[in-house]
Design goal:
With 452 residues, this protein is an alpha/beta fold. The chain is 26% helix and 13% strand. Bound molecules: 2-acetamido-2-deoxy-beta-D-glucopyranose (2 copies). One 2-acetamido-2-deoxy-beta-D-glucopyranose is lined by residues 299, 323.
Amino acid sequence: MGFFRVLVVLLVLLVVGGAERRRGGGGRRGLVRGRGRAGAVKRLAEECKQYVEAGETYLDCQDRGLTSIPPGWPEDTQHLLLARNRLQVLRDGTFAHLKQLRSLDLQQNWISRVEDGAFAGLDQLHSLLLQNNRLRSLSEEPLTALPRLRYLRLYSNPWACDCQLDSLVRTLQVPSNRQLGNFAKCEEPEQLRGHKLKKLKADLLCEAPPPADPNAPPTPPGHAPHPPAIRKPQDATSLCHTYLVPRPLLDCTSRDLKYVPADIPPDIVKMDMSTNSIQRLRPRDFATAKDLKTLNLSSNSLESIDTAAFAGLLYLRELDLSNNSLQFFQYGVLEDLYFLKRLSLGGNPWRCDYSIHYLVYWLKHHPGVAHSGLVCSEPQEYLDWPVEDYVKTYNADCPKDRQVGGGNAELDKDAANQDTAQELKAETDEEAVGVLPSPLRMRKTFEIIRLS
Ligand SMILES: *[C@@H]1O[C@H](CO)[C@@H](O)[C@H](O)[C@H]1NC(C)=O
Ligand SMILES: *[C@@H]1O[C@H](CO)[C@@H](O)[C@H](O)[C@H]1NC(C)=O
């Protein structure tokens, strides 16, 4: 496959590059590597993928069934991807030789314990992903080794919100730590379940716990009374590959998905779901994906999109719906997309009748949205017409205009102008009546400005 060839070429380049630097007397990095490098690369070729992107060094060890971190990984690694392995305990000094690390992705492991010195030496680390593990407790101690930490993901762990979590909660709540531990919630005790760590009243954590049930057997220290929550089978992070850098990306291409998976992580910026078998988008399918900027749904079997399907996608800029089975958009589908810039619509059997008017109307009123591929495929009469041309003809043909005369271009323009003028007039009339409550009147004024 092409991908593997590229990989091999990259590895060869790396080896040659390393040799080159050594031969040329090298500089610091060359010296650090020294002997043993060729062996490391060979071993890596079996286990992990090493590559350079935008000048940064990545080591991709996702899905390798790893239960521990073997020694000897390249010391110049800047981004280490360890998602979906079987790590259970992060021991003191585990990453001590990886001093260049800037991001460390440990999500979707079985981690239940992090020793205090686990992250020792990681002076440069700015992103640490620990979501979807089995952590019940964590003190702030391991994090004190990370002076540059800016992003910390802790959600989807069964946090026990008790006195042992006190120092972590206080750290997360420091105002300058805005991006640390967002969305993490308590699993226990019962009365705090679902509460966000960021919002807990830290002072209460170390107060005496409510009297325990005298009949309950004592829980041995360090053991969860409940087994860790089992992940839902349609959970996005278990179905798709997550990449943190250069931008948080969820790669769900070609996974034979029938529906948009649940629980899209809230920090995802780009989501690629092209080449699946999704037939419909349901209400609030993307409600958790608040930061999403690019959404690719190309080459599915989409026939219908619920009016509320895109609810919450406030920052979406690019939406690719090409190569689907869409014939029209229901009224309202696009109203949530305030910042959309590009909309790809090609390769759909758009039906040129009244049902298509909403889409054209919306595009007309959002001239900042570049769209492509909007071509009639039905009825036969309008086959291969740009949909906008069909709508113009429709306007020219409609009864009130027909009495004026034929259907030439000049008239189309007049008709269009007249439409706009009428909308404006209707809105100003309402305004003039002066019976609307003032907030509504304000909104009307705003719409008039947008139209002109
Ligand atoms: C969406 O995915 C398809 C197929 O993988 C690709 O050709 C297209 O360029 C992508 N669109 C965007 C906006 O990235
Ligand atoms: C359109 O999607 C089908 C599968 O749904 C795929 O086989 C085909 O290659 C896609 N075409 C393009 C131009 O992407």
